[in-house]
Design a protein that fits this description.
The complex is a heterodimer.
Chain A: E1 3-7, E2 9-10, E3 13-14, H1 17-29, E4 34-39, E5 56-60, H2 70-83, E6 88-92, H3 95-107, E7 111-116, E8 124-129, E9 134-140, E10 145-149, E11 165-167, E12 178-185, E13 197-201, H4 212-221, E14 224-227, H5 229-233, E15 254-258, H6 264-270, E16 275-280, E17 293-296, H7 299-317
Parallel strand pairs in A: 1-4, 1-6, 4-5, 5-11, 6-10, 7-10, 13-14, 13-15, 15-16, 16-17
Antiparallel strand pairs in A: 2-3, 8-9
Helix pairs in contact in A: 2-3, 4-7
Chain B: H1 10-23, E1 27-33, E2 36-38, E3 60-62, H2 64-81, E4 83-92, H3 97-106, E5 110-115, H4 121-132, E6 139-143, H5 154-162, E7 166-176, E8 179-185, E9 189-195, E10 200-203, H6 215-223, E11 226-229, E12 238-244, E13 253-254, H7 260-269
Parallel strand pairs in B: 1-4, 1-6, 4-5, 5-11, 6-10, 7-10
Antiparallel strand pairs in B: 2-3, 7-8, 8-9
Helix pairs in contact in B: 3-6, 4-5
Classes of the chains: A alpha/beta, B alpha/beta.
The complex binds flavin-adenine dinucleotide and adenosine monophosphate (AMP).
Adenosine monophosphate (AMP) binds near residues 65 and 149 of chain B.
Chain lengths: ~325, ~270
């Protein structure tokens, strides 16, 4: 089948998820084609998208698209899907994918898989349900399909070569009803949902002044930081770091939790992480049951030691 | 108040206050979509066909982000406006009336239930959109996601059907003199935006603080109307199948707290996580 991949720009560059999306698209398309669509101006040479499997790259680079509007972007993507004779539209299940995917599905009359976690078997796509407490298959009954892929679902592969970028002119660019007044970027560089490694702290860390321990380790690992719900409720950490059933759901390669008890609502948001390390003074903490590696010990002592050990490991590797 | 330091600015100040008083007279008419969800402590089990939750012994709650953030912010805005109505709608069966009453107890004014057991987000949106079309709602709020299907898509589908802008994951919302401003998540930050005309937005943490219904609210909810609306015909686009539980983790390896080199070694060579 022909697959159209929407490539989201972050600070003028294709997001990290792009490589993964294109790899997925190439496997999904079989004998069909893979087209990448970029909306807006890019600071980076987009032809490199070809190396991850895009056979064709379309770009709409007009100033109207500087600011994001899911309705406008969704409309353009629907038109591009028509234009390229695509049967599937693929995008990332992140903040912008969540704004666009339903619009494309509605405008293009397609079945929607929200949060696919892997490749389908036939028309059945694996997804998570019940906030990570269960897995399910979504069977798509329609010819046309929109797949929003959960970040970190499959490893990306370099499988192609660079491709010329074509500028594409849609029939119209609908006027946006959204006006951007100001932008506030978080200080951390790695958005939590996309992070491959996450270091997380709970109430066991006693207070916000101790978060340096978490940040030091995260920095050494190139990880994002997260926290349990009470920690963000009390205001020790910002809301966007709250993971769990009522926060963000993540599935990094490595999740390190310090001073978190592992309540069922917390686990729901993190239990699909590939490897879980738990640091807790209480050997009976429920989190150990969900962990791969456990350290029964005081986070105030263990975290600096772990940071040191990582430092040493990196030096040895270099 | 630094703006009004000078005496001759008193006049401006008075006008400003009057302006606020005037804006308080605006009428706020808000629709909040609420879903039922299994209580967050629920141990998940499925029926023998593996295509639905085994509802035995499950306690149902109002989906947290619908109740805590969307509904409460809607109530706050109505209260600040001084006039208006917060309507709630759910797509569900008579079994869900108890959930609707909970949301009414928090303070919603009136409720509609579209009488269908929804099988997907699309079925929810395709019921609510035609019903809401043409009604004088200023805007529609949904929760960030349901904690059972985690689709985060009902709001977007609804907006697309209504041709209204859709803003997922808002953390702040203000409406004054018909001008709506909000903070939306942009993955690694937030953006303050202004939206013209009616819109659909999904509510996330930060938008409001949970309100625990008081006795008066609970009593009042008993007599508030729940109007049942008959559903439209609908053809399914997807179906959920093969629910399973994730594999249990193998036993957790306990590492000596004084030997973090060993942990790093295992993370590297065994888990391939470094
Ligand atoms: C409807 C609902 C939704 C919820 N949603 C979420 C959610 O999305 N995410 C979430 O996280 N929670 C959620 N919760 C809350 C959840 O039930 C727990 O209360 C919460 O996760 C506990 O946070 P915690 O582990 O940081 O704190 P605690 O439970 O207080 O645990 C602190 C842990 O730190 C350990 N500790 C103490 N000192 C040290 C030390 N020096 N070194 C190492 N360890 C130490 C203790 O042994 C303990 O295990 C929800 C609850 C409800 C009712
Ligand atoms: N059956 C339903 N009836 C009314 N609103 C719903 C229903 N299901 C979901 N919603 C709304 O849509 C939001 C997102 O749901 P979902 O797309 O399932 O994650 C929820 O937070 C609710 O506000």
């Amino acid at each position: 089948m022909n697959v159209l991949v929407y490539i989201d720009l972050q600070n003028g560059r294709p997001r990290k998820s792009s490589a993964e999306l294109l790899t997925y698209a190439q496997k999904l398309s079989g004998a069909g084609s893979v087209t990448a669509l970029v909306l807006g101006h890019s600071l980076e040479d987009l032809s490199a998208l070809g190396s991850f499997g895009a056979q064709r790259i379309l770009q709409v680079s007009t100033p109207e698209l500087t600011h994001f509007d899911g309705l406008v972007f969704g409309q353009l993507i629907s038109e591009a899907a028509q234009f390229t004779g695509s049967q599937a539209v693929l995008l990332s299940f992140d903040h912008s994918g969540k704004a666009i995917a339903p619009v494309v599905a509605a405008k293009w009359s397609a079945g929607l898989v929200a949060g696919a976690t892997g490749l389908p078997q036939g028309t059945r796509y694996p997804v998570k349900a019940f906030s990570g407490k269960a897995l399910a298959k979504v069977n798509v009954l329609t010819e046309k399909i929109v797949v929003a892929l959960t970040p970190n679902s499959i490893p990306s592969e370099k499988n192609g070569s660079s491709v010329a970028v074509e500028s594409w002119i849609p029939s119209e660019i609908p006027a946006s009803k959204i006006k951007v007044l100001s932008v506030n970027k978080n200080t951390t560089d790695i958005p939590l949902p996309e992070a491959e490694k996450v270091v997380s702290g709970g109430r066991g860390l006693k207070g916000p002044e101790n978060w340096g321990l978490i940040e030091d380790l995260a920095k050494e690992l190139g990880a994002a930081t997260a926290c349990s719900r009470p920690v963000s409720d009390i205001g020790w950490r910002p809301h966007h770091e709250h993971v769990g059933q009522t926060g963000i759901t993540i599935r990094p390669n490595l999740y390190i939790a310090a001073g978190i008890s592992g309540a069922i609502q917390h686990l729901a948001g993190v239990n699909s992480s590939k490897t879980i390390v738990v640091i807790n003074t209480d050997a009976e903490a429920p989190f150990f049951k969900a962990a791969d590696y456990g350290v029964v010990g005081d986070a105030f002592e263990v975290l600096p030691k772990l940071t040191q050990a990582i430092k040493k490991f990196k030096a040895d590797q270099a | 108040m630094q703006k009004y330091r000078l005496k001759r600015d008193l006049c401006t100040f008075v006008l400003h206050v009057l302006g606020h008083a005037k804006s308080k007279k605006s009428v706020m008419n808000i629709l909040v979509c609420i879903a039922k969800a299994p209580d967050t402590t629920t141990k998940i089990k499925f029926n023998s066909e593996g295509n639905a939750l085994d509802g035995n012994g499950v306690t149902w709650i109002v989906n947290p982000s619908d109740e805590w953030y969307a509904l409460v912010r809607a109530l706050e805005l109505k209260e600040a406006a001084g006039q208006g109505k917060v309507t709630i709608v759910t797509v569900g069966t008579a079994d869900d009336d108890s959930i609707v009453r909970k949301a009414l107890a928090v303070g919603a004014d009136e409720a509609f239930r579209i009488n269908l057991s929804p099988e997907s987000a699309a079925s929810v949106a395709e019921q609510i959109a035609p019903w809401a079309k043409g009604q004088p709602f200023d805007f529609i709020l949904t929760g960030k996601e349901t904690i059972d299907f985690n689709g985060s898509v009902v709001g977007g589908l609804l907006a697309a059907h209504l041709d209204w802008p859709y803003i997922p994951l808002i953390e702040k919302l203000n409406v004054e003199n018909g001008r709506a401003t909000m903070f939306r998540d942009i993955g690694g930050g937030t953006e303050e935006i202004e939206v013209n005309g009616p819109f659909v937005a999904s509510a996330t943490k930060g938008l409001a603080e949970q309100r625990i219904p008081n006795m008066r609210g609970i009593m009042a909810a008993r007599t508030k109307p729940i109007t049942v609306v008959e559903p439209q015909s609908y053809s399914a686009k997807i179906e959920y199948l093969e629910f399973t539980l994730p594999q249990e983790k193998g036993a957790c390896k306990i590492i000596d707290p004084n030997n973090m080199d060993e942990l790093v070694r295992l993370l590297h060579s065994e888990a391939k996580a470094l």
